[in-house]
Structure formats: C-alpha cells, structure tokens
C-alpha cells in the first residue's frame, strides 16, 4: 500500500543566521515557500546593509537541489524607494555579459518585495586578506577593480559606491566582480553620443540588428535616468570612501569619484589599516546666504595633504573652510608613513594620482590600467600566456608524432 505523500503545503518561516548586525532588519526569518516556488533554496545570509539583505541560494530542479547552480538573491527593504530598485535592475541589464560584472539571472516580485537573483561568485571577505597581501597580490586586486570600472566607463556608468564590500574578490583565482548599483549614475554625454551613433547608422540600415540593439540601450538609459532624476543626483554612498567633491555635494561629479575610492582601498592595503577616514560626517550650519559645511574628516585630509591644498580645493568647490592653525600646511610624503615591501616610486605615483583632491587631475581609469605600477603583473601574465602556448605546441607535436 502506497503512502499518501500529497501533504498540504503551508508557508513556513525559516530562521537564517545573520552575518552582521540586525539594526536595519529585525525580522531575520525568511518565507521559504517564496523561494521554493521560484526554484531556489536559501543556504545562508551573505550580507546586509541599509538597503537590503543578500542570501546565498542553490537552484532546485523538480524539487531536488542542484549544487552546481548557486545564486545570490538580494531582497531590498521596504524602506527603499522603488525608483532606486528599478535603477539598479536597469544597470544590471546594461552590464549583462560583461567581465568583472555581476550576472543577472532572474527577477520576481512577491508581496511588494523585489527579489534580484544573480550568479553566485565565490569570494573571500576583504578583511580576511587585506593585511596579508604582498605587493603583487595588491596589484592583482587593484587591476581587477580597475578593469571593472573601465567596463562601467565604456558603458557610460559611474558606480558611486566603490568599497571593499562591493568588490567581491577571489584571491585564489585572482578575479573579482563589482556589485551593488543602487547609487550608480549615468554619463549623459555618453548617451548623447549613443543617440548620434544611432542616427548615423539608421540612415543606411534602420532595421539592422546593431541599430535595434542601440535603440534598446538608449531606451533603457532613458528609463534609468528618469528614475535617477526622481531620486536626485549626486547621492552619497559610503562616506569614508567618498572624495571631497561628493561630501560637499559639488554638482560637477563623474567617473573620478570612483577613482578616489580605489585610492582609499590602495591605502588600506599599504597601511594595513581597515578604518580610514572614519570621521566622515556632515553637519549643515546655515550662514546668511549660503550653507557652511564643517566636515570632520577635512582635518584628516589636511593631516595628509596639508591645509594649503585642502583650503584651495574647498574654495574651488565654493565652500568656506576654517582650519585650526596647528594643522600642517604641507602634505606628508607617502614613503614616510608607508613601509610595506615593494612600495616604490611607481606605487607612490599611482597612489598620489588616485588620491588627488582635484578631481580634474585625478588619474582616469584607462590611464590607471596602463600605469607602470602594473608592469610586473602584465609581464607575469604575458609569460604565463607564452608558457601555455609553448605547452600547447609541444602537445600538438606529440599528438602528430603518435
């Protein structure tokens, strides 16, 4: 006699252990049925912040776990505006299929919650390796990060929240992906050039696949921009990784904000200090006919770059600044405070050009990728490729001999 296995299904809440504090989201249980109905099973929580929580999940095939299919599922909190979520999804569509980018797999909406499913990327938390990396390992990390930012620039996007927590890195593979596009923005000049390209191409081949693809992208850029306009431009990401122009809400911001963040990460590696610029907080004090922002971390900047440079750049950003007379006027020499093996002139030059207070003089991502600092890495990769090709030729010769 067969047993009756047709049990009535009920919604079940499963407790998931959080990996960080719960001040954003007190309810740490999940509705397992929501995931199962969409062919996913949650394994554990990967992380959470002010905007949402991310779970690791595996795929289900006819109710059976498929361990080869691993995903990261992001669920935004109800406090996050729909516009922010829509913009992030739009960005994920724009970067789909690109190297060093998260790969969007699926979207589903349940009870006013949007679930964003991307391919799982195996990584190690930054805090577990940053203080142990040698200079060659630092090179690989930064090179991968710059490659990701270059992909974004080639697609008219600047991230605006670059930090270790948003760059998932696998030290063993030497690969990384840049995640979390909730605060990203679009380079309008890039879209304008894309529109001009579409006009030129459509004169000869208005229905070609290339023209159709460009039109699709333009429509997506326009839809994303509409949501960004509703939210407001020049949003603040993680303050301790933001350059001065972002902290002071200067209107003219672009790809350079991300390059400053790369410099902060570089400095974390070099000093083996996790919390840099930890006093970044803004206090708005009304003064007659303009606002005066006193930013605590300006003192930290002045201790590195000197009061003269900081005052000069604040004037450029049209903000008043008062610094104590005890603050040093001249910048420090990086080699006087950085003592890691391999910190040579090339490393110092790259750090200085990344952590440049003037955004117009800050190094561009394409120049960063060709900087002499990465020459040893590129030579190593070239040698590896040469060895691989030599081995392939030897194998081919042996096959022909046999």
UniProtKB/TrEMBL annotation:
Keywords: ATP-binding, Kinase, Nucleotide-binding, Serine/threonine-protein kinase, Transferase. One of its GO terms (biological process) is regulation of cell cycle. GO terms for cellular component: cytosol; nucleus; protein kinase CK2 complex. It is an enzyme of class 2 (transferase). One of its GO terms (molecular function) is protein serine/threonine kinase activity. InterPro entries: CK2_alpha, Prot_kinase_dom, Protein_kinase_ATP_BS, Ser/Thr_kinase_AS. ATP binds at residue 74. The keyword Translocase does not apply. Its EC number is 2.7.11.1. Pfam families: Pkinase (PF00069). The keyword Kinase applies. Belongs to the protein kinase superfamily. This is non-specific serine/threonine protein kinase. It comes from Paramecium octaurelia.
């Amino acid at each position: 006699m067969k047993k009756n296995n047709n049990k009535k299904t009920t919604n079940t809440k499963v407790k998931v252990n959080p990996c960080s504090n719960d001040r954003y989201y007190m309810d740490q249980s999940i509705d397992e049925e929501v995931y199962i109905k969409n062919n996913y099973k949650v394994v554990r929580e990967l992380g959470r912040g002010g905007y949402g929580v991310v779970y690791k999940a595996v795929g289900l095939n006819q109710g059976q776990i498929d361990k080869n299919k691993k995903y990261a599922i992001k669920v935004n909190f109800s406090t996050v505006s729909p516009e922010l979520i829509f913009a992030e999804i739009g960005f994920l569509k724009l970067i789909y299929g690109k190297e060093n980018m998260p790969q969007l797999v699926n979207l589903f909406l349940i009870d006013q919650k949007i679930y964003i499913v991307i391919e799982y990327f195996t990584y190690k938390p930054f805090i577990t390796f940053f203080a142990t990396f040698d200079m060659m390992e630092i090179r690989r990390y930064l090179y991968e990060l710059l490659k990701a930012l270059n992909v974004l620039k080639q697609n008219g996007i600047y991230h605006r929240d670059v930090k270790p927590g948003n760059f998932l890195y696998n030290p063993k593979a030497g690969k990384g992906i840049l995640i979390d596009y909730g605060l990203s923005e679009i380079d309008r000049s890039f879209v304008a050039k894309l529109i001009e390209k579409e006009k030129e191409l459509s004169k000869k081949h208005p229905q070609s696949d290339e023209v159709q693809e460009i039109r699709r992208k333009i429509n997506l850029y326009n839809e994303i921009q509409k949501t960004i306009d509703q939210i407001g431009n020049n949003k603040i990401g993680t303050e301790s990784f933001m350059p001065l122009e972002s902290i002071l809400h200067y209107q003219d911001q672009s790809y350079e904000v991300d390059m400053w963040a790369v410099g902060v990460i570089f400095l974390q590696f070099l000093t083996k200090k996790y919390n840099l610029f930890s006093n970044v907080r803004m206090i708005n004090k009304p003064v007659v006919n303009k606002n005066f922002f006193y930013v605590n971390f300006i003192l930290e900047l002045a201790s590195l770059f000197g009061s003269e440079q900081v005052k000069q750049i604040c004037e450029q950003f049209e903000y008043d600044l008062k610094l104590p007379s005890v603050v040093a006027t001249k910048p420090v020499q990086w080699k006087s405070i950085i003592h890691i093996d391999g910190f040579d002139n090339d490393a110092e030059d790259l750090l200085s050009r990344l952590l440049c207070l003037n955004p117009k003089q800050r190094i561009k991502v394409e120049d960063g990728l060709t900087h002499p600092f990465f020459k040893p890495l590129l030579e190593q990769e070239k040698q590896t490729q040469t060895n691989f090709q030599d081995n392939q030729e030897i194998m081919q010769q042996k096959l022909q001999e046999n």
